[in-house]
Write a structure and sequence with these properties.
alpha/beta; Hypothetical Protein Yjia, Chain: A,domain 2; 2 domains; eight-stranded mixed sheet; six-stranded antiparallel sheet; 14 helices; 34% helix; 23% strand; binds guanosine-5'-triphosphate; ATP-binding protein; CobW/HypB/UreG_nucleotide-bd; CobW-likC_sf
Length: 352
């Protein structure tokens, strides 16, 4: 019997994890599993423009049907409003009667207010039951992130299960150290290794929900969204022109070598000159840049290059000017591509 017919609350899993930990990647894997048919995925994004909902099986629009009987929707303003609207549409038969929800939070989200809204709201708490908080920890960057960001620590404290991602990219010592750190913080927590195929629905769902008693100290500590760490800002770059592949490589190299320590996350959908109809997706997470991936087609009608950079104390104007120089956007007082590449004073790797 579905949750609608039985009147039982709909289980809701919060999927959290710092910027670039691998939440969208894991969701895409999960959505291929028949165990998730009937699931609604809610994507919450940080930044002027969102790319995540486009990268989930490349869909756009309001509520979209995904292959395998799942739905996908973006939290546009407020989580409670979005959930209420979805319930109404579900109850009126406008959208299929989903019987599970997975909420992907933004990487910088403090999960406490999210969970508080879900369990304290008079109507929402009747219709949804918090099934668990699944926190992704990136084996490569996890240590630095846990040290530096209160949001990352809270994500770990509130977890009912941890998924360790990118252990395939970490050496044995780094992997062991991050696992030991997770166990130090929460010894009883199940730690599932994504690279070993342990992050499967059977291990991630039905975690038993949240014990309100355990949550009380956190909720008492403040239900307001904690301010993002000082100096964290999002910059969005757009460009109509197709980028020569070499230019983009150089832009990334320069950005990483000169400003890498200040970059928390870079995500881009790029229009490249060699094949403008098949955009390239790039992901940077702190110093780690993942191999670019080519899509078969643009995920929505916007075929411009879009890049979102989340930085800490990163000079947004400088990033924009650097990008414009490589993208060939003329600007006052800005170097063009050849000036950068032919300049004998350019940083190593940039000279021809
Ligand atoms: N090698 C490897 N790469 C991974 C793994 N998980 C994620 N990635 C890569 O890490 C990058 C970021 O992954 P996403 O899934 O976009 O991360 P996210 O947590 O959704 O990112 P935000 O939405 O910015 O917080 C992508 O290039 C992924 O392909 C993993 O277990 N191993």
């Amino acid at each position: 019997m579905s949750a609608l017919n039985s009147g039982r609350p709909i289980p809701l899993t919060v999927l959290t994890g710092f910027l670039g930990a691998g939440k969208t990647t894991l969701l895409n894997q999960l959505l291929r599993d028949p165990a998730l048919s009937g699931t609604l995925v809610l994507v919450n994004e940080f930044g002027e423009i969102g790319l995540d909902h486009l990268l989930i099986e490349q869909v756009d629009g309001d509520v979209v049907a995904l292959a395998g009987g799942c739905l996908c929707c973006q939290v546009r303003s407020d989580l409670i409003d979005t959930l209420e609207d979805l319930l109404r549409r579900r109850d009126e038969g406008e959208i299929p009667a989903f019987d599970r929800v997975v909420l992907e939070t933004t990487g910088l989200a403090d999960p406490v207010p999210v969970i508080h809204s879900l369990i304290a709201h008079p109507y929402i708490s009747l219709r949804f039951a918090l099934d668990g908080v699944v926190t992704l920890v990136d084996a490569v960057n996890g240590f630095r992130t846990l040290n530096e960001f209160e949001e990352a620590r809270r994500q770990l404290y509130l977890a009912d299960a941890v998924v360790l991602t990118k252990s395939d990219l970490a050496d044995a010592a780094t992997r062991a150290a991050i696992e030991a750190e997770i166990r130090r913080v929460k010894p009883e927590l199940p730690v599932l290794d994504a690279a070993r195929g342990e992050a499967v629905p059977a291990n991630l769902f039905g975690l038993g929900g949240h014990d309100a008693e355990n949550l009380k100290p956190w909720l008492a500590a403040g239900t307001e969204t904690s301010a993002h760490d000082d100096g964290v800002k999002t910059t969005t770059l757009w460009s109509d022109a197709a980028l020569p592949p070499t230019s983009f490589g150089m832009f990334i190299d320069l950005l990483r070598s000169e400003h890498g320590a200040k970059i928390l996350r870079l995500k881009g959908l790029l229009r490249m000159a060699d094949d403008p109809d098949r955009p390239v997706v790039v992901h940077g997470v702190q110093h780690l840049f993942h191999p670019p991936r080519r899509l078969d087609a643009w995920p929505d009608e916007d075929t411009r290059t879009r890049i979102v950079v989340i930085g800490k104390h990163l000079d947004a104007d400088l990033v924009r000017r650097l990008y414009d120089a490589f993208a060939g956007v003329p600007g006052l007082d800005a170097p063009d591509r050849s000036a950068l590449l032919d300049n004998p004073l350019a940083p190593p790797g940039m000279r021809r």
